[in-house]
Design a protein that fits this description.
homodimer; about 220 residues; alpha/beta; Rossmann fold; three-stranded antiparallel beta sheet; about 45% helix; DNA-binding
Amino acid sequence: MARRKKYKFPKTTIERLSYYFRALEDLSKRGIDTVSSEALGGKLNIKSSQIRKDLSYFGDFGKRGMGYDVKYLLKELKYILGLDREWSVVIVGAGHIGAAMANYDSFGKRGFNIAAIFDNDEKKIGKEINGTPVLPYDNLDDFVKQNKIEMAIIAVPAAAAQAVADKLVESGVTAILNFAPVAVQLDENVRCLSVDLTTKLEALAYYMSYSQDKLWKIYS
Amino acid sequence: MARRKKYKFPKTTIERLSYYFRALEDLSKRGIDTVSSEALGGKLNIKSSQIRKDLSYFGDFGKRGMGYDVKYLLKELKYILGLDREWSVVIVGAGHIGAAMANYDSFGKRGFNIAAIFDNDEKKIGKEINGTPVLPYDNLDDFVKQNKIEMAIIAVPAAAAQAVADKLVESGVTAILNFAPVAVQLDENVRCLSVDLTTKLEALAYYMSYSQDKLWKIYS
DNA sequence: CGGCGTATGTTAAAATTTTCACATGGGTGA
DNA sequence: TCACCCATGTGAAAATTTTAACATACGCCG
């Protein structure tokens, strides 16, 4: 019921809240209106104690003996995650990944509106991707300022990423989702999360080689 | 020099090894052949002690007072990460994300060869994406078995992901990179990493709402 | 060839995160 | 209304991960 609780909590909690949110949406769609931490955890492969702890950082949302009211918890999570409003986002880079993001309809459903896509390529400029216009990279500055864009998705080659990030921040963007395989250096009041596709595959490769005992375990 | 060291290390270490690898590649390309943990950390926003610790799980690769030989460390990391061989991968789902993955050339450079893409859509079957054929989903089983595919990328809607994953595992795949926004339940000897695009944006939304003091901090 | 500067590898401490265990309180039915 | 069940919320313990600190070893220079 009461919202404010602890002031510090693990970084990983935020990510899990997002998982809870999605799972609850699914339950809600299926007409289920109450769920226990145990049941929710089963769906997500997360321990029930973890779920209760995560939620406890933000408030008391459940009823003892009963579990959580799905709709109520959804509303609260929506609020906590900042999803109770619309966010305007620009994508920089109209290549395959940029295009895939522009076509990713889940963003819209969550209130992330792709306002424009920016690229240097003459052949792409002026076209639309999933209804979103592709504009010249040179207009990025003005567009971000005029439309008060706060979030951006970087989908350009690694070599260009830092320059793009700098430009975005200078124009007023304060949150960046970066697909370029490079660590961009940013002011600390700008949030940047990276999605590193190669790294994920490499981690899988590691686990597989490991399981095949081809690793350092062999040598001494 | 010596390879085998500790047997347990943080899960996050593997991911960082992948970052080190890429940064070293970059240094190597630029003709730099020695690097200190301090310099490498500066490039990646990672503390030098973290780097030394990470590497120490696998062996002694540096020279005191000197740092690390870039080429040598690259070779060792390649070995540790299991990148000293080719991996055959299939993509399931020829939608925007599947297509983007098929077009992601970095995979090939790392030894991840996309052998085929599978989809149900008649209009897509028979075509090629970046030189890789799109085959009927019904052939997935046979193809994976015949070509001894070990890794797969799932890029289908959430509702289909579990069934696809089951089919892949049944056919012999033991590592999965999952783009579907759902937690797939798998046998524990199958490795599965998820890339959750919405979750990342949601985490950003959280951080931004937080910084704007619109969160639980307000209430009591 | 010995001392000096430097950056490693490691050990110990600190910080963070997860898990456990259980007291607590809401709801239900007699 | 009372007793019983159940699942929460939490405080403490365990596990994991990061950071700090430093002794050690390498190479260079005089």
